[in-house]
Automatic annotation (TrEMBL):
Classification lineage: Bacteria, Pseudomonadati, Thermodesulfobacteriota, Desulfarculia, Desulfarculales
Organism annotation: Dethiosulfatarculus sandiegensis
EAL domain span: 24-278
Name used for this protein in its record: Diguanylate cyclase
Segments traversing the membrane: none
């Protein structure tokens, strides 16, 4: 009898696994076609300057308009893209699309807007990354200073000497570099000092519940003053309340991003927001 149970379990397990593999394969297949079928769209979320209340830039965040499943967020397909290598053409597409969009904003007179694009670990280790970025800039006509690439700590700590070398090659193009989700990974101050970075983005988990959570409040303050002494711009992500806003303003954080100001929106909507030209903080 025990044998029978075992058999059934195996059968159930196999069927389960098959379904999972099939589902994954079909997702992979449709993701493969997504670029070609123009199902991907880059949304943009404003980065707000705390002193002026104006938009200093925007982060590019990819979305997938799936024909059956509707709008899918990056957390649901970036990992699959990373595993399968699809992230390379996908990332290239996002970068090109974002640079083209930022150039269009410039042409509308919004010269000060900087565009931030996320890189994945696999993209970061591609030998031709700096060359690809350089080509994208010259093809789209976007000046290098208007582009920022977001890296994460774990990505750059993987093989740190090589990573520093890549960061220098990127930075030599004249673009800026940001360390995203800062505080979640394991980079040390020793390395932070050696990285050719321009910006630190405080991870959302620390911005949560400030100032009422005293631990988070002091972590955020420590990151802000550390950033200041290393000459880095400090950005807080995930700002949702006016209490968070006033805490960050009081403590001289440079920029912030979050639903309190604006969720990520399509490029044309962001342009409309820019053209209204109102302060995002006091309006
Ligand atoms: P991230 O780079 O840390 O981006 C910030 C995420 O926080 C975005 O989620 C954004 O929509 C969300 N967010 C913004 N403000 C708030 C807020 O006030 N509250 C909360 N709870 N969340 C907020 P999203 O768009 O789902 O992206 C998730 C992650 O997917 C990104 O995290 C990034 O790591 C990755 N990702 C997005 N686009 C790309 C891409 O083009 N390439 C790569 N490699 N990764 C991407
Ligand atoms: Mg990011
Ligand atoms: Mg982040
Ligand atoms: Mg994140």
């Amino acid at each position: 009898q025990a044998k029978d149970v075992g058999k059934n379990t195996t059968r159930i397990f196999t069927r389960d696994l098959n379904t999972r593999i099939k589902r994954r394969m079909s997702l992979e297949e449709s993701l493969r076609n997504a670029i070609k079928n123009e199902e991907l769209e880059v949304y943009f979320q404003p980065k707000v300057d705390l002193r002026t209340g104006s938009m200093a830039g925007a982060e590019a965040l990819v979305r997938w308009n799936h024909p059956d499943k509707g709008l899918i967020g990056p957390d649901e397909f970036i990992p699959l893209a990373e595993e399968t290598g699809l992230i390379i053409p996908l990332g290239r597409w996002v970068l090109r699309n974002s640079c083209r969009t930022a150039k269009a904003w410039m042409n509308h007179g919004h010269q000060c807007m900087q565009i931030s694009v996320n890189l994945s670990p696999k993209q970061f280790t591609q030998k031709d990354l700096p060359q690809m970025v350089g080509n994208t800039l010259s093809d789209t006509g976007l000046p290098p200073y208007a582009l920022e690439l977001e890296l994460t700590e774990n990505m750059v700590m993987q093989n740190v000497d090589e990573a520093i070398n890549t960061m220098h090659r990127l930075s030599n193009l004249g673009i800026q570099l940001s360390l995203d989700d800062f505080g979640r990974g394991y980079s040390s101050l020793y390395y932070l000092k050696r990285f050719p970075m321009n910006e630190l983005k405080i991870d959302r988990s620390f911005v949560d519940d400030i100032p009422s959570d005293p631990d988070n409040a002091s972590i955020v303050n420590t990151i802000i003053s550390m950033g200041r002494s290393l000459n880095l711009r400090v950005v807080a992500e995930g700002v949702e309340t006016k209490e968070q806003l006033s805490f960050l303003k009081k403590n001289n954080c440079d920029q912030m991003q979050g639903y309190f100001f604006q969720a990520p929106i399509p490029a044309l909507d962001l342009l409309r927001l820019l053209q209204r030209g109102k302060s995002l903080i006091f309006s």
